[in-house]
Specification:
By secondary structure, the chain is an alpha+beta fold. It has 12 helices and 13 strands. Strands 1, 2, 3, 4, 5, 6, 7, 8 and 13 form a 9-stranded mixed beta sheet that branches. A 4-stranded antiparallel beta sheet has the order 10-11-9-12. A hairpin with a 4-residue loop joins strand 3 and strand 4. It is globular.
Length: 406
């Protein structure tokens, strides 16, 4: 594990961002031992950290109307509860989490977004600075383009940003941005450490996460997940998509159980469906690799569109479709665009592939139709870079304005 280095001075201010994630293929089948393709979504979470002399730590989360601060002296008293695990990026100190719940008056079992975000921030803050003689005063503001609770990796993007910023501020990892750079990445070893701490944050938020979301947030790009093993895909293209949120709430636990029950009831029907989904993931992976090596062709995009249609039908057969998703697919197909649900299904979100030859007027028309139905819709891309450090000049004015306002 990396520790604060005398060659790495603490920094006064840093700006970082991390992407969300979508499952391109393999959702639900991955629970039954098949491969899934997870991919970074270029809707990002942004964090600004500023060291201060206020003798307090404050965090602003304007997306969820959370604005809190704590006296440094009160936080320092919690360090006595830090065990060996507290200083270890690969093991969660459950006793410290319990003490933080008492300190913040967050009830045991509370699952609201604000409470879990606060616990994650304070936990990583105390652990990262546990080596320090004194805890630093700092202000943190986090703002996200990602909706919460939509299966788009918003909590992981948050945990990755918090980890990267606090590790940088402590001098545990480098400040990778040189004078004339707009964005920069950390070394592979430093990214591993960011990912490890982000995974501890995900454990606080989700209990028993797979680690996929924080890995995608850290490294970006495409990642194959199979039987607990994650394999990044190298040299893959970025793809333009529409991301649509039907805003229909759903229970992932209930939907996973529904698929399991259907497999149990109709094994001779459902097992071949799972095998077919696995084949879709494999063909998609090989197609993406070809696109990166040979250059994207119409044939490649046609294959990706076919796979999207096939997998959407598979997911309906599994019982995780929804009338809202059917409507979405009908709207996009009327404009020769191909869509599938992403994540748990039963509502939630869907992705629509945009080919290079698509008329921009068609894209705007489709987005408008989807919004008229009551859906939220964004044009974005998948395969985006992972966690980044930014210079202030690299951020759009409206994002920087939010981060510096609080």
């Amino acid at each position: 594990m990396l520790a604060p280095s005398p060659d790495m001075a603490p920094v006064e201010m840093c700006l970082v961002s991390a992407p969300g994630k979508v499952i391109l293929h393999g959702e639900h089948a991955v629970v039954h031992g098949k491969a899934a393709l997870a991919v970074s979504l270029n809707l990002r979470t942004y964090l600004r950290l500023q060291l201060t002399s206020a003798a307090e730590v404050s965090i602003s989360l304007p997306n969820i109307d959370t604005f809190l601060s704590w006296d440094i002296s009160a936080l320092e008293q919690l360090l006595s509860h830090c065990k060996v695990e507290c200083r270890n990026s690969t093991e969660l100190d459950t006793e410290l989490v319990r003490k933080l719940r008492e300190f913040t008056a967050i009830a045991d079992g509370a699952t609201d977004t604000s409470s879990l975000a606060v616990l994650t921030f304070l936990y990583i803050y105390l652990c990262v600075f546990a080596h320090s003689e004194v805890l630093p005063s700092l202000k943190v503001c986090v703002w996200s383009q990602l909706p919460t609770g939509a299966g788009l990796g918003s909590s992981a993007a948050y945990s990755v940003c918090v980890s990267a910023a606090l590790l940088t501020a402590s001098g545990t990892i480098s400040f990778p941005l040189s004078k004339n750079q707009h964005t920069a990445r950390w070394s592979e070893q430093e990214l591993e450490l960011i990912n490890n701490w982000a995974f501890q944050g995900e454990k606080i938020i989700h209990g028993n996460p797979s680690g996929v979301d924080n890995a995608v947030g850290t490294w970006g790009g495409f990642l194959r997940y199979h039987a607990g093993k994650m394999t990044p895909l190298s040299r893959v293209p970025m793809l333009r998509i529409l991301l649509t949120n039907t805003k229909v709430p759903r229970s992932t636990k209930l939907l996973v159980s529904r698929v399991k029950d259907r497999i149990k009831q109709y094994p001779s029907v459902m097992m071949p469906v799972l095998e077919s989904v696995d084949a879709v993931s494999q063909i998609c992976e090989s197609t993406l690799v070809e696109m990166a090596i040979e250059g994207a062709s119409d044939k490649h995009y046609s294959t990706l569109e076919d796979l999207i249609d096939i997998n959407q039908h598979h997911l309906n057969v599994m019982g995780v479709g929804h009338t809202s998703l059917n409507k979405l697919c009908q709207v996009t197909l009327a404009h020769s665009l191909h869509s599938k649900l992403t994540g748990a299904g039963g509502g939630g979100c869907a992705v629509t592939l945009l080919t290079p030859k698509i008329d921009e007027l068609v894209v705007q028309e489709v987005m408008e139709e989807l919004k008229q139905i009551g859906f939220d819709c964004w044009e974005t891309s998948i395969g985006a870079p992972g966690v980044w450090m930014h210079s202030p000049t690299s951020l759009k004015h409206d994002i920087l304005e939010i981060l510096t306002k609080y």
